[in-house]
Automatic annotation (TrEMBL):
Organism: Glycomyces algeriensis
Keywords: Hydrolase, Signal
SMART domains on file: RICIN
Record's keyword annotation contains Protein biosynthesis: no
One Gene Ontology term of the molecular function aspect: hydrolase activity
The protein, known as: Ricin B lectin domain-containing protein
Claim: Signal is one of the keywords in the record: yes
InterPro entries named among the record's database cross-references: AB_hydrolase_fold, Esterase_phb, Plant_Biomass_Hydrol_Est, Ricin_B-like_lectins, Ricin_B_lectin
Signal peptide: 1-36
Amino acid sequence: MATTIRLRRSAITALALIAALTAALLVLTSPKPAYAAQLTQIGNFGPNPGNLQMYVYVPDNVGANPAVVVANHWCTGSAADFYNGTQFDELANQYKYIVIYPSVTRASKCFDVASQASLSGTGGDSVSIKSMVDHVLNRYGADRNRVFATGVSSGAMMTNVLLGVYPEVFKAGSAYAGVPFTCFATGNGTEWNSECAEGRVNRTPQQWGAAVRNANPGYTGPWPRMQLWHGVNDDVLRYPNFTEMIEQWTNVNGTDQAADFTDAPQSNWTRTRYGGTGGQAPVEAISMRNTGHNLPHQAAETLRFFGLTASQPSTVAIVGAASTRCVDVPNSSTANGTQAQLWDCSTWSNQAWTRTSTGELRVYGDKCLDAEGWGSTNGTRVVIWDCSGGANQRWNVNANGTITNVHNGLCLDAESRGTANGTRLVLWTCSGNTNQAWTLR
């Protein structure tokens, strides 16, 4: 039976604000692609002191020893909301991992990141989610060395809790707009901690690290890696929490707080890595300027950090929704500057695209789909060019069917709404028209 908790007016206001903002994280999406696999509720999965519901997504032909990703929703959200609003299920069809979607039943629909029971692994939501993981490991023969957690807002806080309580279970986490492990502890039965939310809990790296170590006395194994995302202008779980999380997880992983690597993958991002310079460094932190609590979710980047995209997926065709024709390089040309077009789908290599973990769409192995000349205006030609790693060669494949260029945010577009063979591809302001909708298959 769900427990209704009476909150102070300030807490209710804060939770309502979280609900409004985190709902804005996830845009209305077109229906999911048709797969036999569906979001499925599991009952009787084991000890469940948090009274959570368990949902799973098991992709078609999942294979042996799949990885497991626990995907935690935001306050007032649900498993279905997180499933519908993120790409973890669609990417699971490529990378063949299983997704667990916990769903809160209490009135606030916020995860329990405040009670001593949940923070110690003796009760609450952390125990319920651990039971879900155990169920999947046993039922599907999943890989115990590849279990991960991610989440948004309340789900990001839960991600910190899961890694803090169960370092022997979770190998890495990815937290979008969260707070450090134990920061939200209240001890009085309430769910909301204003001091933490407002970024007024300031501890040393050693103190934050000790919170994790003290939750795991006697543990001598490797500590989980952590990827952190936060908007500089977050006014719900304020930005100082980002620094405190960096301090916590660098200390836990035995490294200092001096970045070993810094870059800017997108114009308003600053990405830093600690304890290493590679894509699976012990701690990776992405700060987003001019961004509030509703920061954009980056499922592919999360999976890259988890190491689940290391083996490139099979090539795919990019099929136009309006034309049912494929993105094609004319006459199988390999020349830089060749403009992509629509053409009847075939099995030829000039229609075989590889989506890389960095967002490239490659053809022939070394040519990338490219916004010509770093263009950022309507009508910019979409061409192939030697892969360079530039943002004009990186693409977001979005849940609503659009493919947007990272450099300029414009949509891949069949020119003039054309559907015939030979229709040229350009970039254009996203409009919602079907000539800008695509399926990777």
